[in-house]
Amino acid sequence: MAPERRTAVVEEIRPLNPRVREIELRLEKAPFPYESGQWVAVYLPVGPQPPKVRAYSLATPATGDGRITLSFNRGNRPDSATDYLFDLEPGDKLEISGPNGGFTLPPEREHDFLFVARFTGIVPIRCMILDLFSRPFTRDVVLIYGAQSPEDLVYGEEFEALAGKYPNFRYFPCVQIPSAGWKGEVGSEAACLERTIRSPEGRLAYLCGLRALVTPAEEALQRIGFPAEQIRRERYD
Question: Please, what are the averages of pLDDT over each run of 10 residues along the chain (237 residues)?
Fold first, then answer.
């Protein structure tokens, strides 16, 4: 059976950097319950055989009022789908279905957490982190977030603010090409991971991004001693 499609109205569009935008949508029929880390299918009226269906992770925890936030990357080689999304304006409508996916937090919040992401792989992880700290939470949370350059660390300032507010949240930004005055990590996320995490005890690890991130990070976790049941991953390729 085909998934039920729902209509959402564009409320606001916010640029996060020249290539990434965040879009706030309001579903015409609320509520829209989902778990942090899940994604929706977006049906775009483009291409030779429309619709073109794209999957986008939900960027903020569920609110109960039918509002959702998505983030999307235009990439180095834009296509008709990303062009369409970048041309949206408030008041335009999209069709979506979902929620989908099992890359989510456990029902019990009795673990320490390690999150590792690259570029827009941060989106579902950002949703989970905001969810964790939306209520009193005292376990240790580590975020290792990588990108090519500091400009590509979308939501970086938000994570810095969270780290300043919550002593149990540690944020390690990591870039390949540092800018002048850069004070974060330089190099791969996997190397930063091995410098930062010494033991798997009591900790769940979440990895999100392309294969180039997920495979080396998972291998690093295995060297540290993480068993398979403590590693959760979402790959985009």
Answer: 91 95 96 97 95 97 96 80 94 98 95 98 99 97 98 97 98 96 95 96 98 98 98 96
- Residue 163 CA to residue 137 CA, distance in Å, equals 13
Spell out a b/e string for 214-232, using b for 16 or more CB atoms within 10 Å of the CB, else e: bebbbebbeebebeeebbb
Single pTM value for the model: 0.96
User: b/e map of 150-165 (b: 16 or more CB within 10 Å)?
Assistant: bbbbbbbeebeebbee
Amino acid at 113: F
Please state, in angstroms and as integers, the Cα–Cα distance from residue 138 to each residue in 80, 127, 134, following that order. 45, 18, 12
Q: Cα(237)–Cα(233) distance, rounded to whole angstroms?
A: 12
Query: Is the Cα torsion angle 134, 130, 24, 18 positive or negative in sign?
Result: positive
Q: Is 175 left (phi over 0), alpha (psi -120 to 50) or beta?
A: beta
Closest CA to 51 of 42, 40, 61, 62: 42
CA distance 92 to 9: 6
CATH numbers and ranges of domains, the chain: 6-100 (2.40.30.10), 112-235 (3.40.50.80)
Q: Cβ distance 118 to 146 under 8 Å?
A: yes
What's the distance, CA 142 to chain centroid? 15
The 10 Å Cβ neighbour count of residue 25 is: 25
Q: Is 29 helix (H, G, I), strand (E, B) or coil?
A: coil
